[in-house]
Design goal:
alpha+beta; globular; 19 strands; two-stranded antiparallel sheet; 2 domains; Porin; 17-stranded antiparallel β-sheet
Length: 413
């Protein structure tokens, strides 16, 4: 690049000399200041493209060096690692979304052989429609797995699309519900024996400053909690967890069953109960190939605010459906995913294919096969840290109502 600039400068100097000579040939034996200025200005303009090219090359070099430091495995496997990367997305209800995500990965006491990989993630975003939010998630295993802390927190002003309640709600013209939402949910499990855990869980949710529908006018009957609500639930949970790596499991089983009770006596506006289950199974069949299966269920008894009913759709299961596209008292879903981690011809690139099915109903007896919804798609994986077996995932999901695109650290489940 330096040689190129030097060569270009010599050529452009010749151009200036020609301009000066032209002034002399025109009869001006003494070059006036205006001609000199014009000549120097021409030299300046002629060098600009190369100067910009050099600047762009320097910038590209700096970004390449940053990227190399980011993905290089220079941190020992037993040491904590902090990831930081930008994100982007687009959706009709948000327009362009920009954000930054981070993940802290570590083993208790830095003992890889004795303790599982823990993760604490954060994601902050804003959109071109003045929406913003902060997401926090944690899956922390203490020394010798004595305690398991599973939780998430959401603080966001983000549109909630409300299509109505039930399995037959139309997809056209949903109500856009604007408001500020807070969700804090934490499970604190103690090791009972081996991979068995049991403990307490707490869930706090609040939706305030609510505007339901365009200009506060809904196209549908207003559901419970349309004016805003808060709920505090306390409950119990049990879990079996044999996963060595929650971000990317190749072999193991995770099963959780939980119960939460929400009561006005606990600083809430509604009285209801929620039973939920999540079962995940993983098996490696060929080198670098994994079959992953998941089944989830949610049952709400009583009257819950609309955003705390059993919701179909998410970035984890039923990908491609907006969270809450379908909602009711009962929700059940299952999915299968086959993973190539990594692909045979690459050290860092992987791929997946997935398929899921699920539905909602007012009660279990009302579940109908015709209400079953299907979603599927494929994804690319980029191996960030082979020592910790961590991928960055890009998923494209399809449904009969549209598609969805997702970027996250770690697998969907």
């Amino acid at each position: 690049m330096d040689l190129l600039l030097k060569h270009a400068a010599m050529n452009n100097l010749k151009t200036v000399q020609i301009l000066i000579a032209g002034q002399r040939l025109s009869g001006n034996q003494t070059l006036n200041q205006r001609a000199l200025f014009r000549a120097l200005f021409a030299l300046f303009l002629s060098l600009q493209p190369l100067v910009l090219l050099r600047a762009q090359a320097d910038t590209l070099g700096r970004w390449s060096a940053i990227l190399e430091r980011f993905v290089r495995e220079d941190t020992p496997a037993d040491k904590p690692r902090l990831l930081l990367y930008p994100t982007f997305a687009f959706a009709p209800e948000t327009s362009l979304e920009l954000g930054v995500a981070s993940a802290l990965l570590f083993h208790a006491k830095n003992e890889v052989d004795k303790n599982r990989l823990s993760e604490i993630t954060a994601f902050a975003f804003f959109t071109f429609r003045s929406q913003y939010g902060l997401w926090l998630d944690n899956a922390v295993y203490t020394d010798r797995d004595r305690w398991l802390l599973l939780g998430k927190a959401r603080f966001q002003r983000f549109p909630l699309l409300y299509y109505g309640i039930g399995p037959d709600t139309p997809k056209d013209n949903p109500d856009v519900v604007d408001g500020f939402g807070v969700l804090v949910r934490q499970r604190v499990f103690h090791q009972i024996k081996g991979n068995f855990f049991a403990g307490l869980q707490v869930d706090y949710q609040r939706l305030s400053d609510v505007q339901f529908g365009e200009n506060g006018v809904s196209q549908r009957p207003l559901p419970p909690g349309a004016a805003g609500s808060q709920s505090l639930g306390l409950g119990l949970g049990v879990a079996y967890d044999s996963r060595p790596n929650a971000l990317n499991t190749r072999n193991g089983l995770f099963a959780e069953l939980g119960w939460l009770r929400y009561d006005p006596a606990l600083a809430g506006d509604f009285e209801f109960e929620n039973f939920h289950t999540d079962i995940r199974w993983y098996k490696s069949y060929r080198p670098q190939q994994v079959l992953a299966l998941q089944a989830v269920g949610s049952i709400v008894l009583g009257t819950a605010p609309f955003h705390q009913m059993s919701l179909l759709g998410s970035e984890m299961i039923m990908r491609g459906y907006y969270t809450g596209r379908y909602r009711d008292q009962h929700y059940y879903a299952a999915q299968a995913e086959y993973r190539w981690l990594p692909l045979p011809f690459s050290r860092r690139l992987g791929a997946t294919a997935f398929l899921s099915a699920g539905g909602v109903a007012p009660d279990f007896g009302a579940m109908r096969l015709s209400d079953l919804r299907l979603a599927g798609g494929f994804g690319a994986r980029y191996y960030l840290f082979p020592k910790k077996d961590i991928f960055l995932r890009f998923d494209l999901a399809f449904t009969r109502e549209g598609s969805g695109f997702y970027i996250f650290t770690g697998e969907a489940f």
